[in-house]
Amino acid sequence: MQEFAIILVSAILINNYVLVQFLGLCPFMGVSTKLESAIGMSAATTFVLTLTAMASWLVDAWVLKPLDLTYLRTIAFILVIAAVVQFTKMFIEKSSPLLYRVLGVFLPLITTNCAVLGVALQNSGRELGFFHSSLYGFGAGAGFSLVLIFFSAMRERLAVADIPQPFQGAAIAMITAGLMSLAFMGFGGLV
Amino acid sequence: MQVPFELVAANPIVAAICAMVGLALLFGALLGFAAERFRVQGDPIVEQIDALLPQTQCGQCGHPGCRPYAESIAAGEAINKCPPGGQATINALAALLDVPAPELDDEHGEESEVKKVAFIREAECIGCTKCIQACPVDAILGSAKLMHTVIAAECTGCDLCVEPCPVDCIDMIPVEGDLKSWHWQLPQRPGLIASDRQPHSGEAA
Fold first, then answer.
1. Least CB-CB distance to A59: which of B12, B23, B199?
2. What pLDDT shows up at residue B196?
3. Given A10, A55, B99, B189, which residue has the most CB atoms within 10 angstroms?
4. Any chain A CB within 8 A of the CB of B22?
5. CATH class of the B44-110 domain in this structure
6. B27 touches chain A (CB under 8 A)
7. What is the pLDDT of residue A27?
């Protein structure tokens, strides 16, 4: 049980994919202007991350390792991710047309979210078991959601704040992200 | 089964090709199944937009009715072309579609403060049936060379019958409030407060 907690804390806070490892910055800046769409994007990305971690573990352990093809990991995982994202897109289009509309182009762009590929590759490098791998994927998604939702809540306030002309828009968002990243570096020695 | 596996595993190029083709086929089959399973009938967003439009079928937006306009909105048209709905409809559409709410486009008409219905001054009506043809909701009753009149409960107040009338005998009169339609007059908003400020434009993605 303690092991699970350590994996989760490590994935969410210490090795946070966005603010510590700087993966997945594209949706972090792109979908964070509105809290609602940020929540939708977080849910979709977490879903994709967890599913990808599971599927890539299966592919890695059942196909690539027995055939001694581990050098094909990157391209095989990209195949897995593309399929999972496409599946998620169909699922969301059916279950929540509004969310589908709000996410728009960012939904298929989860494919190119490097956090997703990062989780799959790092999992296979760590030699974790199936359950731990999927838990790590879920933790990475939860960490992504956490910072994306925090950041979008801040940006909603920044939109109406009195910001000097040169810092308006993307500039103040970048500075805010940098400060958040500094804060997350503080979790470094936690475990 | 054992022999072909040995053969494949011994030859790395064959193994790589088999593995990738196999994976691609597997995922293709899964996605094909999902596409069939999660098929979307029509565009559900159109229904939701159509429900917010006032259903006056007045055509002031440039479309033959509310549903065609709903379809155009779903395809990306501006949401500020509906004078009968006014700002309230624009705000509701903006909230639904998660876009900023623009002002009403003056080109398509002005929002009236109160609900109006058409009234035909019956003594002057010559029975030309032109207003009947113009009415989008069939709220005008009458026939050729006989007096026409408006069914007030059906009239949506769209003004379309005023223009064709050759003797100008149609008035748009405000609906008198009664106990059922009476509502509180909300107090006027106080001056601008800090959180009312509009977000600066040019927000980069």
1. B23
2. 58
3. A55
4. yes
5. mainly alpha
6. yes
7. 86
* Nearest to A98, CA basis, from B181, B137, B93, B108: B93
Predicted local distance difference test score (pLDDT) of residue A138: 94
Q: Of chain B residues 88-147, which have a CB less than 8 A from chain A?
A: 96-98
Q: Do B200 and A163 touch (CB under 8 A)?
A: yes
Contact yes or no for A67 and B15 at CB 8 A: yes
Per-residue pLDDT band for A67 (boundaries 50, 70, 90) equals: confident
For residue B164, the distance in angstroms to the closest alpha carbon of chain A comes to: 41
Q: Which residues contact B155 (CB under 8 A, 6 or more apart)?
A: B117, B118, B137, B139
Using a CB-CB cut-off of 8 Å, the residues of chain A touching B12 are 68-69
A vs B, Cβ pairs < 8 A, gives 87
Assigned CATH topology for domain B113-177: Alpha-Beta Plaits (3.30.70)
Q: For residue A86, which residues of chain B lie inside 8 Å, CB to CB? A: 31, 34
Question: How far apart (Å, rounded) are the C-alpha atoms in residues B117 and B109?
Answer: 16
Q: Which among B19, B39, B97 is the nearest to A69, CB-wise?
A: B19
Look-up of token digits 């939904």: A107
Contact assessment for residue B48 and residue B98, using Cβ atoms and an 8 Å cutoff:
no
| Residue extents of the structural domains in chain B | 2-31, 44-110, 113-177
User: How many other CB atoms sit within 10 Å of the CB of residue B130?
Assistant: 15
Please give the model's pTM, rounded to 2 decimal places: 0.63
Q: Is the ipTM value over 0.95, yes or no?
A: no
- Please state whether beta strands B140-141 and B149-150 pair in parallel, antiparallel, or not at all (unpaired): antiparallel
Q: What is the mean pLDDT of residues B65-83?
A: 86
pLDDT for residue A43:
86
Q: How confident is the model at residue B204 (pLDDT cuts 50, 70, 90)?
A: very low
d(CA B141, CA B133): 11
Q: How does residue B26 score in pLDDT terms, banded at 50, 70 and 90?
A: very high
**Phi–psi pair at A39, nearest 5 degrees:** -65, -40
Please answer yes or no on whether B40 and A94 come within 8 Å at the CB atom.
yes
Q: What residue in A sits closest to B99 (Cα-Cα)?
A: A102
